Every structure is written in C-alpha cells, then in structure tokens.
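Protein data:
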Amino acid sequence: MTVARLVATLAAPLPPSGADAPELVHGLLVQRGDTELVALDPGEGREVRFPAPWPRGLGTATLSPHGDFAVFAGLHAVRAVDPAGDIRWEMRHACWGGCDVPHASAAEYLEDEDHEYPDHGSAAVSGDGKLVWAHVREPDGEAWLVLDAGDGRVLGRAETGTVASGSFHTAHPDPTRMHLSIGEGEEGSPVLSGRWDGRLSVTKVDDELVALAVSPSGLLLTVDVTQETLSLHDEDGSVLRELDATGTLPPGAGSRVCWDLEAAFADESTVIVAGAGNRPARHWLLRDLTPRGEVTYPFPVAGPPRSAGDGAWYTVAEDGASVHLWAF
C-alpha cells in the first residue's frame, strides 16, 4: 500500500446546500452557486466573486487561469464576465433547450417547462488565458469553437457531428490544445482532440470513450463507456497501454467491477484511479498503467481523485463543504 500525505484542507466558499461541489481550476478553488461563481486563491487567500447571468442548472461555468474573468456556457450563449458583473463579451448560439428560437436573454425561457431539463455544452479557458474553447449548438448541428478570450471573436470552428446531452473539456498542458468529451446518451461518447495554430484542427480519438486526465507531457487517459478498460493515448490518439478493471479491482458496492469516471496524474508515470461504487472511496496507484497497490489515507475519503497539478491530487469531502489536497 502507498500512503497519501494530507497537504491542505480548503473550506468551500459556499454552503453545499446552494452550490455545486467545489473544484480546483488552474490552481484556484472554484464553486458555482445559485447566483454567482466564487474563486478562491488558496495561496493568497484572495476571493473573487462573479455574478452569474443565469441559474446554475442552465449550463456550465469555468474560470480564467488568472481569475480575472469567468466564462458561463449557457443554453443560448457563452458569456465572459468580469468580477464586477460587467459583460466582457457574449457569443450567442442556438438553444440547447431544443427550440428554434434565437434567444436574446435567459429571461425568455426561465419559466418555460420545455427548458426545464435541457442538454448543455461547455467551455474552457486555455492555460495561458488567451483562448476560450466552447462546444455550442448551432441551427444545423453542433460545433467546437475557439474564441479570442479578450473580445469573444470566433477564431476557429469545427463541426462535431454530434447530438449531445452534455459535454466537458479536459485541459492539455499545451495552451494551444484541448480535449472535448461529448455524451450522446445511448448514441455514443466521442472524445475529440483540438489544436489551434492559427487554424483549428480536430481529430477524433474514439467514439466510445470518456476523457479522464492528461499527463504533464500531454498523454491522455481515457475509459471506455462501459468503464471496463483504461487506455493511455499518445499525442496522435494511438493507444499505448490498456488496463482492465476485471482482474485488477476487487468487487465494489455494486455487482459490476468497473473504473470510476475521474482520475488524476500525480506525475508523468503515476496515476491515481478509483473503482466505481465504493463507500468510502478506494483509490489505486498505477505506474505506467501497471497496478502498484491501494492508496491509504489518514481518514476515509469520498469520491474519485482529481488532478491538482504539481504532483498533487484532491478529493471533495462527502458533504461538499471542503476539499482535501493530497501528495505522496
């Protein structure tokens, strides 16, 4: 067994009853509440609050690496907001609620039952803060966009050929690259890899994967949609190594042995993974995707490990009120 060392415990800035679980984004503790996105710098103790343009159930939100603006990916638009609540820019798109109305504001559908359980896209800010990657709905399909983070101009566009119920981005250490996982319900789960070098080029890694984490050098860790097999991919998407849950993990709380949908790189060759369905959570250490034993903690942890950078990972307390930062 490998012993994890508690580096720090960070209190969530918002009460769990009215907010999503806290997460670390670009080294900042970020939490989306009903009316705001809050970012806390753990090192300096500085807290910044961004007024939200629509309720938290309508889309996703993220933060720039310097904490100077937040990006809200909503049903009808992607909007960058300054701490004062001023709109830095807004890029409108077709409605994720499935209607054909080009909405000017969220007020047009907040009370509409047909928009109560919408699909959603997502957005992410590059590591250097210069680009915003956004998965949006268009009148004739869906697209992956690269936007100028300063003014919201569309720099690049690629059709995804998907019908998403939701999506999320996984950052790459190279700020000109990004990964996008798109959930299509029973239709599939493609993972796309994008590069911006003055033009947007997109390659499909696979149609039946979920992106879990990216190593410091850019290797991509995925799991198939059945959560049976972990795969490590090189820069062009080729599979370098694989590891099955069956024969590796002990039985979990359920009847099926499978990997969880999140993982963390502690360093280039070391990955912390979890089995689904374990309460308290159980994590395992892999080196070069070879099992090296279970990770032991000084107290029970909840949920999967998540990447924190600089050789660390984090877990969220079961009540959502704090984040525990870990290292070896």
Q: What stands out?
A: The CA atoms of residues 144 and 158 lie 5 Å apart. The chain is about 0% helix and 45% strand. The first strand starts at residue 2 and ends at 3.
